Amino acid sequence: MKRVSLAWQIFIGLILGIAIGGIFHGNDTVAHILQPFGDFFLRLIKMIVIPIVVSSLIVGVAGAGDMKQVGKLGLKALIYFEIVTTIAIVVGLLAGNLFHPGTGVDMGSLAKTSISSYVETTKETQHNGIVDTILSIVPTNLFESLSQGNMLPIIFFSVMFGIGVAAIGEKGKPVLRFFQGVSEAMFYVTNLVMKVAPIGVFGLIGVTVTQFGLKSLIPLSKLVFTVYGTIIFFVVVVLGLIAWLFRVNIFNLFKILKDELILAYSTASSEAVLPRLMEKMEKFGCPKSITTLVIPTGYSFNLDGSTLYQSLAALFIAQMYGIHMSIGAQISLVLVLMVTSKGIAGVPGVSFVVLLATLGTVGIPLEGLAFIAGIDRILDMARTACNVVGNTLATIIVSKWEGKYDKEKAEAYLAEISGGGHDSKDHKYVTES
Q1: 113, burial (CB in 10 Å: exposed 0-12, middle 13-18, buried 19+)
Q2: CA distance linking residue 154 with residue 142, whole number of Å
Q3: Tens digits of residue pLDDT in 388-408
């Protein structure tokens, strides 16, 4: 009997979770029963992410060599991130202007959700300022950063340590071998953790549907359809065009990432797929030194789905209140989002925190966020899947930009996952000539 693939197992968990949630909508007892299944899976993921990022980065950077090379690589990645996320902000605004999802919405029919926790986080973050945010990338206490899961300071330390290992030559070889062993062991642990992914998905989606129900989407259905439609357009057309310019077939990327996309969508968690993305991009011809730097950093600076949503949601709230935003005001919104979406990277509930930090500066009532907070989880699922595609594509493009992309390895991997394991014209990946 043929074994059911992980993608199908996750999909079955998703459907069962939706069904249970729909049947027991409003039943807090069922939600409490389902919650531990999702929490258990997310805890397992959080357990493995930092050891994988640290060990893989140290091995990757030590292999890359000197600081100049790493700096050049990081700069290229940041330039790409800024260009693509700015395009995402503009696409979100264009969709808002074209479809007017907030026009005619009856605010009296909408349920309000408390956003007090996001307001507190925003106040703390805004108090820091951009200079403080940049300084916070350098950890004063590595173990504090590790315990709090602050990814940017962890990445900074790992890069510096990797450069140090490379600089001491032969003396660094035993250290490098140790972290290579840690990295390989953690990827084995990742494969074990993924076996419980369908159960985690079942619990997480079940709780979401039980609490909010599908009926809660009806008053805001125009916003939901606009967000989903715009994200699909952005991924297929905009990222597809960027991929094509670099001779990459975006649809084959979907084929490689089918398990991760379903998992990211159903858990609304970028962390849930980060270890697997790093593993798959390495198999797909991207060198370890690039994969281990671009993907974790991308989760702080290259959130395409999140930035697109932020501009669209800001326009939605303005339309809901009947506020006309001129072209100048919308350009101001783009400029503010370009800064705030990077300045508070890695903060919990980042999309909401960015919106709270942005809306006031362009004259949009912050209270409008309370109307969409209830369905944010449904929107977050689409944003997360978009972020996954954006970060994997960024890794491939930076690898090609550096001239280190292994095309033959990529084609062999695509042939392997296509089930043939043999050469075929249908298995071409990066051949769009």
Answers
A1: middle
A2: 7
A3: 999 999 999 999 999 999 999
CB 290 within 8 A of CB 397: no
- Residue ranges of the chain with per-residue pLDDT less than 50: 420-433
Q: Which of 208, 173, 261 is nearest to 19 (CA)?
A: 208
- CB within 8 A of 300, min separation 6: which ones? 151, 152, 342, 345, 346
Integer Cα distance of 393 and 31 in angstroms: 36
DSSP 162-206: HHHHHHTGGGGHHHHHHHHHHHHHHHHHHHHHGGGHHHHHHHHHH
Residue with tokens 């071409």: 428
Cα→Cα distances 289→72, 74, 234, 354, Å: 12, 11, 28, 31
Domain topology for 66-151+216-427: Proton glutamate symport protein (1.10.3860)
Tokens standing for residue 402: 């550096």
What does the pLDDT read at residue 421?
43
